[in-house]
Amino acid sequence: MNNFLIALLVALLPSKLKILVLKLMGHEIGKNVYIGLSILNIKKITLKDNVKIQSFNYFKNLSHLTMMEKSAISGWGNWFTASKLNYQDNEDFGCLTIGECSSITGRHYFDVPGQIIIGKATLIGGYNSTFYTHTITADIDVTNINKSIIIGDRCYIGSHCMFLPGTAIGSFTFVGAGSVVTKNFMDKNYILLAGNPAMVKKVYPKESKFFLDYFSKYGFKLADYAYEDTKKAEIETRI
Question: CB neighbours of 2 closer than 8 A, spacing ≥ 6?
């Protein structure tokens, strides 16, 4: 049977029955997970404890969806797609990772021929932001280009933002509404990015009430969000 038809039939099931069927299909589903009426056309699904996927979200041709503890797709109308035409032996094809306590609101578009990694306690807020890991060129030897997008810990991304292939932002980064991120800002933390192309508009103090208190309800300490140098180096090799 067609993978899409299977995903559609599973989507119509109540959450508890859907989870049982997904487990029987070999997917990894943790405790207290909720999955609404969303189409999960994904080869491998890993949902840790207390994950929530609300109704009317669409996953097409993804290789692997990983959602860590307490992460959520909290809105509707999000599209997560990976065109098989753009595969080109890319080991990260169709891989989406959403970090612990991170949340995606509604009506965003994620193009995932390359990998997308979202860190801990990050909010993809507002609506209509787009994340492109694929582009085409008119070069002689290369047509398709797939490059990862990396988003750090405890970031906030406003409405109508655009991330281009190979871009990255470090932890504690705010991205202002309507921004177009075209570069790698992984080495910068506690900043405001805004504009087209996005540039550093402001540096925040580490003592900011938002960074110290806003996410304390999740039980994390400030140090939990800083990327270690080895982790940074590993991530940057994928961009």
Answer: none
